[in-house]
Specification:
Length: 111
């Protein structure tokens, strides 16, 4: 599995155009695993937002945090537009980073 250890802002979703969560981390791989495993309570566990649908890498944590705050203040449609610019089918980008597909979960087919 490819390690991605640098500051980033990311969006998780419950499914195609489903519930969206915006977060920030310095270790995307570890954070994806935490969200998928439900190792801590919170928004993504409650709404099963386990699909990585967008992420942006930054040089510093301050830059990533600034971007996270910006996105969190956006309207929902702006977040959807951001995701669909590069990921129109809302595929789980975690699979491209080496994670196994989530069983019974699909973003790209509208379910």
């Amino acid at each position: 599995m490819k390690r991605v250890i640098e500051p980033c802002t990311y969006l998780m979703a419950s499914g195609f155009r489903g519930t969206i969560y915006t977060g920030v981390t310095s270790d995307l791989m570890a954070r994806i695993a935490q969200h998928r495993d439900g190792t801590f309570d919170g928004f993504t566990k409650r709404y099963t937002a386990h699909l990585l649908v967008h992420f942006e890498m930054f040089g510093t944590m301050d830059q990533a945090i600034t971007r996270e705050k910006q996105i969190k203040n956006w309207r929902r449609q702006w977040k959807i537009n951001l995701i669909e610019e590069a990921n129109p089918r809302w595929r789980d980008l975690a699979c491209e980073l080496g994670f196994a597909p989530l069983s019974g979960r699909s973003a790209g087919d509208g379910s």
